[in-house]
Amino acid sequence: MLTESTRNPADAICHATVKAGDYWLYKVTEGQTLRITDLEGNQAADTLFFNADDIAERYSMPDTVRGQGNVFLTTGTILRSSDDRPMLEIVADTCGRHDTLGGACATESNTVRYDLEKRHMHACRDSWMLAIAEHPEFGLTRRDITHNINFFMNVPVTGDGGLCFADGISAPGKYVELVAKMNVLVLISNCPQLNNPCNGYNPTPIAVTVW
């Protein structure tokens, strides 16, 4: 559901631009609001969420989908944890829907889906692994890379129950805004994928803002 935000960027406590292929790792405390903005359109922001006070509890795709009875995420969606607790709520969304079924790209999936010669290409899992290596203070390991959300990514469900990657439905300046229901660790990979239309074959920057 399309919903505009009433928040003023000038009042934000954090604002950052994340280049394509880069990551953003940040603690959002309970009650704070996170906005992710698709600056140039047709970009995908692959995002992991963890309970900042107990990283063994993290975003759960099955619990979220079951809780809302819908495979797509938009305004009103409650992102639920692996303990089936509310983590964040989407309170504004000017894109319309977001994917949580398609997973994240990796060198292995690049090889399987596209070609052996694509294996060397940078992928979201690489960005997450780099973030984990560069920030040991958060206690994350490769075992913590599980369910993710692909904000702005368009992954339609086909008539026979399959998935396909399609051209994005986002546009320059579209955003999604989430309010934290607990202290949340956010790890975003701004997707560098060049082999399917999730980024329009041209990865571009995103912006993140926190109030």
UniProtKB/TrEMBL annotation:
Domain DUF1989, residue spans: 17-185
Domain of life, source organism: Bacteria
Descriptive protein name: Putative urea carboxylase-associated protein
